[in-house]
Amino acid sequence: MTWLLTLAFDGSAYCGFQVQPNGRSVAAAFQDGLEAVLGRRPDIKGCSRTDAGVHALGFALSFEADTRIPPEKLPLALNTKLPRDIRVLKARVVPDGFHARYAAHTKTYLYRIHNSAIDSPFEERYYCRIPGRLDEGRMQRAAAHFVGRHDFLALCAAHSSAAAHGDTVRTVTACEVRRRGDTVEIMVTADGYLYNMVRILAGTLCEVGAGRLAPEAVPAILAGRDRSKAGPTLPAKGLFLHHVDYGKELEG
To answer: How far is CA 183 from CA 114, 128, 136, 180, in A?
Structure first.
């Protein structure tokens, strides 16, 4: 059977989702738990690679395994074997050949900013703090310019393999900014992302919110394809993979 699981995790202690030689990954920790429950270690397919320190509210992964554990019980069984900072939220059986990454229609990321001079003693691991007041109205006007099919090379880290191969066109279907008290949230939905794209997009919007960049400057930044013209790469700890959309074929 092919399984699709939804996970939430705190990425603070991990080098990212993908297994890497330079540190502990979410994938390795999850596979340890999977092996403890199933007695074997199936290959898992994650919906995305995440950077070190990035979190997830709705990360999707798929794998093939035969087990008598019903879908509603599998998350409970796995969670007894997983670290406290990784939790399986739900599990379901999907058609054979399903791949969590390639079957995704869109992925939505959330970037959280604590817009205050004072840190929260409870949430400091889950946001980027910017002390100066941000104008969320200006940020939303700028965000609207990212929506559509564009070349996002200006929002891509220089050493990205996609940039090296010229594969930098993506379609953003939504980009919204909202304020909740001292928290400013940036939500982005796209069919794919470049390396550090959301963190650079968020940094660019913060430049707009701080008044150092005009909202109308975004189209020229994208057209210029020059990373130096966009904003800074904000820290990974403010970034969350919010959810993955697999379209109507997996509804229900």
So the answer is: 5, 10, 11, 5
